[in-house]
């Protein structure tokens, strides 16, 4: 049985046209996907194609106009602790220390202090942040803040970890380091991860499977399996063939997208 199934997911919404009239915009069109337990899946597609909209639907932050989301064999609607999102903007609380940020979700669901502290320290150690547990997040670098955000998500032990371009705002050196660290964390936790990115090399480095989407409305164009050892490095020349496969699928979509802007 698949961990997560997207069945005929479609999303449309109304916008005001230049004439002031309301019109329907189709953002996601009839997406069908099956994601296995412990699989690392990357979503890639042209900017504005609907990848993040689809991720929000999976998270329960948005509702599909049509279709069904099935998790562990059960239809799901709305948000839940079984699906936790890590955003590009880390959304940490600057008035709280690192460990208080990481414990926050556990505190909200009523986990007693000693237990949540133990869980939080475990994930801070995993993220190499133990010595910064009493620091405030405004004292940390961008890469360290994203480590805190990932730790905060992992303490909730979600069925699926959702990541919406979490490394996009980081410098290339920090991003490459976190790409390796995230693979090591995934190997330790075996979490099912869905990761949205614009970066082809990033998707190849991380994914067991890369799902390539068309220009808006988002449709699944190709699912590419990445069968290569880990941890992977973006500069590994053996990954260039996978990069070419993804790029070939995207080329037509990006050029069409530019002509419609």
UniProtKB/TrEMBL annotation:
<keyword id="KW-0547">Nucleotide-binding</keyword>
<dbReference type="GO" id="GO:0005524">
    <property type="term" value="F:ATP binding"/>
</dbReference>
<feature type="domain" description="ABC transporter">
    <location>
        <begin position="4"/>
        <end position="240"/>
    </location>
</feature>
<keyword id="KW-0067">ATP-binding</keyword>
<dbReference type="InterPro" id="IPR017871">
    <property type="entry name" value="ABC_transporter-like_CS"/>
</dbReference>
<keyword id="KW-0378">Hydrolase</keyword>
<dbReference type="GO" id="GO:0016887">
    <property type="term" value="F:ATP hydrolysis activity"/>
</dbReference>
<keyword id="KW-0813">Transport</keyword>
<dbReference type="InterPro" id="IPR003593">
    <property type="entry name" value="AAA+_ATPase"/>
</dbReference>
<dbReference type="InterPro" id="IPR050166">
    <property type="entry name" value="ABC_transporter_ATP-bind"/>
</dbReference>
<protein>
    <submittedName>
        <fullName>Bicarbonate transport ATP-binding protein CmpD</fullName>
        <ecNumber>3.6.3.-</ecNumber>
    </submittedName>
</protein>
<dbReference type="Pfam" id="PF00005">
    <property type="entry name" value="ABC_tran"/>
</dbReference>
<dbReference type="InterPro" id="IPR003439">
    <property type="entry name" value="ABC_transporter-like_ATP-bd"/>
</dbReference>
<dbReference type="InterPro" id="IPR027417">
    <property type="entry name" value="P-loop_NTPase"/>
</dbReference>
